Amino acid sequence: MSEHHIYKKLEMVGSSKTSIEDAIENALAECHKSVKNMDWFEVVETRGHIVSGKVGHYQVTIKIGFKIEKS
Amino acid sequence: MSEHHIYKKLEMVGSSKTSIEDAIENALAECHKSVKNMDWFEVVETRGHIVSGKVGHYQVTIKIGFKIEKS
Amino acid sequence: MSEHHIYKKLEMVGSSKTSIEDAIENALAECHKSVKNMDWFEVVETRGHIVSGKVGHYQVTIKIGFKIEKS
Amino acid sequence: MSEHHIYKKLEMVGSSKTSIEDAIENALAECHKSVKNMDWFEVVETRGHIVSGKVGHYQVTIKIGFKIEKS
Amino acid sequence: MSEHHIYKKLEMVGSSKTSIEDAIENALAECHKSVKNMDWFEVVETRGHIVSGKVGHYQVTIKIGFKIEKS
Amino acid sequence: MSEHHIYKKLEMVGSSKTSIEDAIENALAECHKSVKNMDWFEVVETRGHIVSGKVGHYQVTIKIGFKIEKS
Amino acid sequence: MSEHHIYKKLEMVGSSKTSIEDAIENALAECHKSVKNMDWFEVVETRGHIVSGKVGHYQVTIKIGFKIEKS
Amino acid sequence: MSEHHIYKKLEMVGSSKTSIEDAIENALAECHKSVKNMDWFEVVETRGHIVSGKVGHYQVTIKIGFKIEKS
Amino acid sequence: MSEHHIYKKLEMVGSSKTSIEDAIENALAECHKSVKNMDWFEVVETRGHIVSGKVGHYQVTIKIGFKIEKS
Amino acid sequence: MSEHHIYKKLEMVGSSKTSIEDAIENALAECHKSVKNMDWFEVVETRGHIVSGKVGHYQVTIKIGFKIEKS
Amino acid sequence: MSEHHIYKKLEMVGSSKTSIEDAIENALAECHKSVKNMDWFEVVETRGHIVSGKVGHYQVTIKIGFKIEKS
Amino acid sequence: MSEHHIYKKLEMVGSSKTSIEDAIENALAECHKSVKNMDWFEVVETRGHIVSGKVGHYQVTIKIGFKIEKS
Hints:
The structure is a homododecamer.
Chain A: E1 6-16, H1 20-32, E2 38-51, E3 54-67
Antiparallel strand pairs in A: 1-3, 2-3
């Protein structure tokens, strides 16, 4: 029986008009379509573009870690 | 006709009693009074001061990029 | 009379199911039980674990600064 | 209608005998074979190996961001 | 004939109960199942979880570089 | 019932004549005397002093995270 | 007579369709319109956007230092 | 009544033949001529040039934060 | 007989109206009241607040390392 | 027979009036006069001084790695 | 009598087929042939090349500090 | 006639019982014995050891740049 796990990390950018948290959730939701066993995320960068002097979209870069199912 | 753009970046600190997003919006609103064509922002640092064991103000340092109108 | 202050900094990780701000407040509330004169915080890292493709908990590492009462 | 976009970032190393710019273009050209909607790149590291006291190849590590087509 | 190479980098986390080196080897072994021409690795982070006051598993994040076979 | 946890992080330096892993274990063993619920560690710095051209001691700085028991 | 100098640093982003060097020159040329005594620059970030699988524009962020004329 | 403040940060380099502290004071004195409400500074870099094997001038780069008076 | 040592590191901020060195000494003096065997310090950050265009206080963040007496 | 190699790294600054690549080549050419078996370089910093609003010289700091011939 | 010491730091890369510690020792052993009074080392980077899906050599970059004998 | 210069950088640690500036001067004085054309220095790290609750020696790591005389 295997006693250790291997993880892979992907880097994604989620965006949202409303909040940093929502941008993170949007990235996770998209990634979840193809990666079923996501474990954790790390925020790498928070930025956004500006429209008419206000935040247009928050753009949050995250790394997503997930366990690799052993073949 | 010019085929490239030049941008300038300013560093500002916005504060807010309610949220990190609101602190960012406050910095943008103030900057918008004198800079009309802001394009993007990057969060540099998030901190705050504490009052009675709770967050008093969030203080978010951002860099703001805007296009320079060519003379 | 002393003309300068000395501060100590602690590193804590607060977590929350709802938001980054709430994770910060949770860390401050716990620290406030033993440290009465907290002055400021600095966000060091923002991450979280993922449950069923959504954020399970935000985990925000902060440094908390507080003034040392001189003996 | 969706109001936000999700991006993925890949990390690649392009090389070239002639210039840093050519190394970047080489990495983009290779990535373009499988990723059609590349949006931006960020230079992460510039290095190279040396042959007979001259630059043999420039090796430029870049991150490439591209929009994920929603299913 | 092509005179330059393109590489891709993946980020993985290997774990091991015994050593940092073994955690690296475990990540490489897993990656080797699908990527045949791995060239080099770079250690990005070393951490671990603790069980009963001792290291439970070392968790070593590495970036793995491999040459892309040109189509 | 509480739905979130708070962690504290300490910074320690373990040393060992034999290996990096042993230096980590030594720091954990010492910390375990006063902190019973250590959860994870992060390697911050690896260095050492040199005696007669060989490693005298490895000195490994780690951060140790542990859950705070709520009062 | 003053025996020391004071400098100010601005952060700008130059862009170019052709090269990193040209992007730097473009930023300097624009800045030169209002700042006459620029002394040095430091490259902070190199990135670009991608059009049809090729570099569309290089975008190079630089800091520009210039001596302040004393009043 | 406004409940929050906005700050701007400038980056300057002060120099001095005598000390790091004097270089900081020189930068502040120059900036004070045009900015009246400076609040804090952060040392970003300390360097200098060398004359005849001794420090010619200390060159200290600082960021200066000041409150923006709301219009 | 034990052949290795364990150290703990604390993070403190010393302040002084006169110099960076004095701010460091002030932090050490305060820490010395409760920690008797301090071994070394590392400067982490140097900043200060400004009063009337001059340095009000230097604020120097240091990490202090000290040997743990084994029980 | 020895199964491993040892490398030494030097830090140099090359300059050029024309390009970043030329500055790198200039540093390599100078180093090549005394070091015959240079293997690789890493760009550490890119900067330059400005003359009349244009780049006077590019100044590129590189680390140069070379194999040590065993005695 | 002199009351202070001066140190120089060299940057070297040691390699080993077996472990990170062995790579460090190999670098120290080579350096020891010409530098007799090495005092400490700091690990700067840990990487390696891969052969047949396993670690071929660990390559550990270290800085080595040694006291300068005063003339 | 050559139109560009090449510089080499050395890393040294100066120490002093009195101040950070004196530690820098001590490193420069020692280096000056063998390197005659030192041009600039950059402070890399400031630390020290502690004796009886006070600073024993400041230890300042600097990089020293000097022009290479062309052969």
